[in-house]
Design brief:
Layout (H helix, E strand, L loop, with lengths): L11 H20 L13 E10 L2 H11 L7 H4 L3 H5 L3 E6 L2 E2 L12 E2 L2 H8 L4 E3 L9 H15 L2 E3 L5 H5 L2 E5 L2 E9 L20 H13 L4 E7 L10 H12 L1 E2 L2 E2 L3 E5 L7 E4 L2 E4 L4 E4 L15 E10 L9 E13 L4 E4 H6 L5 H11 L9 E3 L2
Length: 384
């Protein structure tokens, strides 16, 4: 599958004419003693990724209020991060829940979200979402089908769940400037709900060997960059757990002919921001936190504001010096976010601070966790 931002290709005949004209101009310059202009530098791309979209009942109610007369409108809720999302060459989200039908929508513990959320995500610039999560089977196979149908209708690509075996075996490839980016997605579990009878492919579960095989298949399918979204970790724990650390090391150590099989790992599930870290030369976000969620209570049953804090990861990739080598991350950034429960809005914390909002404590808490495993020494900075 190819994503929403196709690059316009010139017709072969026109390309040939332009190339011939440029060659003639260069020859004339050389004959007249003027050097030919330098070739333009190969263009890279920027990728942004954000955390769990987890609409509780209060979030659904807010989208209904914002829609006015009828329906649900999630665009106002998300508009605060539109400048960051829409200006990236490729933007990825994590859709943790499935969609309900005919007004049968619900939050925790069995999530069935309004399908209009797909339109809201696409409207502010997201190109695709990971969908493998512990809530992927909250409404069985029909929930997966409705979710992916709604995403298709909104022009939002998806990876991690499937309506049929062929879709499960396909590679989701999206355009990011001049590059083709494969997006893969896996989850640690489905809250104990068994996979639908006869549909073992419905949700991609974490399996190291399978994940590496899928990454290699994506490369063979033409992917310049392979991004893996992983729903993992221990809820409400700032530090990555043993499984996260072990899996990150194994995935980033995998290589084919000296080229890493995976170029970026995006983590979700823990409900709170977790560290960024460069592992075996590859950036890993252990947890981005909840981009959208209602009032959150931690494992002790206490209201925990960290459950409404998150980050956007932004990575600038440069093309390789030679064909077949790795696209390199030349700039790595994190952008602190907050879901304002009272306003029902996602807030770019840095932008809000610049307008005088009292959010320095939120920013500092997120920054300290994100940098807790030495990412600053590897060049990670807080973005605007």
């Amino acid at each position: 599958m190819i994503g929403r931002r196709p690059q316009v290709a010139l017709a072969l005949t026109l390309t040939a004419v332009l190339a011939a004209a440029a060659a003639c101009q260069n020859q004339e310059r050389q004959e007249s003693g003027h050097p030919a202009p330098p070739a333009p530098a190969a263009r890279g791309f920027t990728l942004v990724a954000s955390g769990d979209v987890l609409p509780h009942d209060s979030v659904i109610d807010r989208a209904a209020y914002d829609a006015g007369a009828s329906g649900f409108d999630f665009r106002p809720m998300l508009f605060g991060v539109e400048p960051v999302v829409s200006h990236a060459d490729l933007a990825l989200c994590h859709m943790e829940t499935v969609y309900g039908a005919d007004g049968a929508y619900s939050g925790y513990p069995s999530f069935k979200s309004p399908p209009q959320i797909a339109r809201g995500l696409a409207a502010i610039g997201y190109d695709g979402c990971s969908t493998a999560s512990n809530h992927a089977l909250d409404d069985g196979a029909p929930g997966i089908r409705r979710t992916l149908d709604a995403m298709d209708e909104a022009g939002l690509e998806h990876a991690g769940t499937a309506r049929n075996a062929a879709e499960a075996d396909s590679v989701t490839i999206l355009r990011a400037g001049p590059a083709k980016v494969a997006h893969l997605s896996y989850t640690y579990d489905t809250n104990g709900i068994p996979l639908p009878t006869g549909q073992p492919w419905a949700v991609h579960l974490i399996d190291t060997d399978r994940m590496i095989a899928d990454a290699r298949a994506a490369r063979r399918a033409g992917a310049d960059v392979v991004v893996v979204s992983v729903h993992w970790g221990t809820e409400w724990q700032d530090a990555p757990d043993r499984m996260q650390l072990t899996l990150a090391k194994r995935l980033t150590a995998s290589a084919t002919n000296g080229r890493p099989d995976i170029d970026l790992i995006l983590g979700t599930h823990a409900h709170i921001p977790q560290a960024y870290e460069k592992v075996n030369g590859t950036w890993v976000i252990y947890g981005m936190g909840d981009q959208i969620a209602g009032e959150m209570y931690n494992n002790r049953g206490a209201r925990d504001p960290r459950g409404n804090e998150s980050t956007i990861g932004r990575f600038t990739f440069a093309p390789p010096a030679r064909p077949g080598e790795r696209w390199q991350v030349t700039k790595a950034e994190f952008i602190p976010q907050l879901y304002d429960l009272d306003a029902g809005r996602v807030v770019d914390v840095n932008r809000a601070i610049s307008r005088g909002a009292e959010l320095e404590g939120v920013r500092d808490r997120i920054r300290d966790v994100v940098l807790s495993r030495g990412a600053a020494e590897d060049g990670l900075v807080m973005g605007e």
